[in-house]
Automatic annotation (TrEMBL):
It comes from Streptomyces morookaense. Residues 1-26, 93-130 are annotated as: Disordered. Residues 1-19 have a biased composition (Low complexity). This is Tetratricopeptide repeat protein. InterPro entries: TPR-like_helical_dom_sf (IPR011990).
């Protein structure tokens, strides 16, 4: 193994990243790292960038940043592609091309926090980050990534229940598994992912029975298992499997209560409220959102409380209680305007101004105020991060439906066609269902050219 590693490194000589060095300009590595961290906070990312990381990039040790850093760099240097910053294509570093050329992925990739993932060793979790995120890679990640790490730590395959010892490496691998699933969902939607998610979730919960020497590690394992249960629950939720989603969210809530983890409890109740609203149980949505807020008050995160308050507003809107909904929306916006903080949970990176606008649009839609719904939906689409195809598709589908209900049928059809374009890369039963509802509203206007074109494409893809 040692000789193979040496030869592979020799076959891929490290080249300094002069383009990135030029972007740093006159700033010291430490000053530039501070700017990277500040830019990350502006877009809701969390990166532990320091002078050493900047040095690793400029020396060529990191040939391609992970997606979190890539989003930050794109935010810092608008119009610059990764190649313009001196980075290699993902497939050349982490995909088949890297393996065929004999490069060493573990030396050229890094975790979202800026450091390497213990126990990962350039395995499936690293190889996953390819621009060609195919079903094959998704299967490799789900079946061989976190599940394999967990199985190794337990001394057998997932499900064998032979607990031994779990430590820092297992906690890190579990946390990374949650990040990877969230990233895949952001880019592709839930349908294909959910079918592959059961095995790593079982392995994660088996880790809770393993011996741990430090309480901090045990706490991280509980939090990681609970967050993974929520992530898998969301995959079920977004793919229309509401019963499965409810079970996974309940499992996460039980884990939170056992561990005394207020942050995990708030997250579990938050998703439970979301599910209850989608399942047509608005009173449960209100109660779950209020329970989430009780747990969330133990944390110093105004943005978290804003999101939880918006979940409550969604329940009031579905109940048709306009005064309660308006009061709750106002409270949510006030909390949102407090800004981000270091205490915001990592899972909330999706919650920016675009998501705020979407959730308010959904409230006005539930109340039947289509004009206001379309106004907020349009702002959500304008503010959406184009790198997250699933979110762009969701926001545009919401806008299309509200425009259709409000009588702006041609505009609704144009927005609907944009969603159809995105559905080539996004798999989400929820979004397809929203678009099908819009199509039903538009059928009586099929003679309008834009509407007819949309319905033809929609019906062809639905076959």
């Amino acid at each position: 193994m040692a000789s193979s590693r040496t030869s592979s490194s020799a076959s891929s000589p490290r080249r300094p990243n002069t383009a990135f060095r030029l972007l740093r300009g006159q700033r010291s590595p430490g000053e530039f790292a501070a700017e990277v961290r500040r830019a990350a906070r502006e877009i809701g990312e969390h990166v532990s960038c320091d002078a050493r990381y900047i040095g690793r990039v400029e020396s060529g040790e990191i040939r391609c940043p992970n997606y979190a850093y890539e989003r930050v760099f794109r935010h810092m240097f608008p119009g610059c592609e990764p190649a313009d910053m001196g980075f290699a294509p993902r497939e050349a570093v982490r995909g088949r091309g890297a393996r065929d050329s004999g490069s060493a992925p573990s030396d050229s990739t890094e975790s979202p926090s800026g450091g390497r993932i213990p126990g990962n060793g350039g395995g499936p979790l690293d190889r996953f980050d390819s621009s060609k995120e195919s079903d094959v890679l998704r299967r490799a990640f789900i079946s061989s990534g976190p599940a394999a790490v967990a199985a190794a730590s337990l001394g057998g395959a997932p499900g064998t229940r032979t607990p031994r010892r779990a430590g820092e490496a297992e906690a890190c691998a579990l946390e990374q598994a949650v990040r990877r699933i969230r990233l895949l969902d952001d880019r592709h939607g839930a349908d294909h992912l959910y079918r592959r998610a059961a095995q790593p979730l079982r392995a994660a919960y088996e880790l809770l029975d393993a011996e741990t020497r430090r309480q901090t590690v045990a706490d991280r394992l509980h939090a990681g298992a609970g967050e993974l249960a929520i992530s898998v629950g969301w995959l079920a939720h977004d793919s229309g499997r509401f019963g499965d989603a409810r079970s996974h969210y309940a499992e996460a809530l039980a884990t939170a209560r056992v561990a005394g983890d207020a942050a995990l409890e708030a997250h579990a109740f938050c998703n439970t409220a979301f599910l209850a609203r989608d399942a047509g149980r608005p009173r449960e949505a209100v109660r779950a959102a209020q329970a989430a807020q009780r747990a969330g008050r133990q944390l110093a995160s105004a943005r978290l409380m804003s999101l939880l308050t918006l979940r409550e507003a969604g329940g009031w809107a579905q109940l048709g209680d306009r005064p309660a909904c308006e009061e709750t929306l106002l409270r949510a916006r006030t909390l949102f305007e407090h800004g981000r903080s270091e205490d915001d949970p990592e899972w909330m990176t999706f919650f920016g101004e675009a998501e705020l606008e979407l959730l308010e649009a959904q409230c006005w839609s539930a109340l039947g105020d289509w004009r206001r719904a379309a106004e907020h939906g349009g702002r959500a689409v304008e503010l959406a991060d184009p790198h997250f195809a699933r979110n762009v598709a969701l926001y545009t589908a919401q806008l299309s439906g509200d425009l259709a209900q409000g009588g702006a049928v041609a505009e609704a059809a144009v927005a609907g066609e944009r969603v159809l374009d995105l559905l080539a890369q996004v798999q989400s039963a929820r979004i397809r269902g929203m678009l099908a509802s819009t199509a039903r509203v538009l059928r009586s206007h099929a003679r309008v050219p834009a509407v007819g074109a949309f319905l033809t494409r929609h019906d062809a893809q639905a076959v």
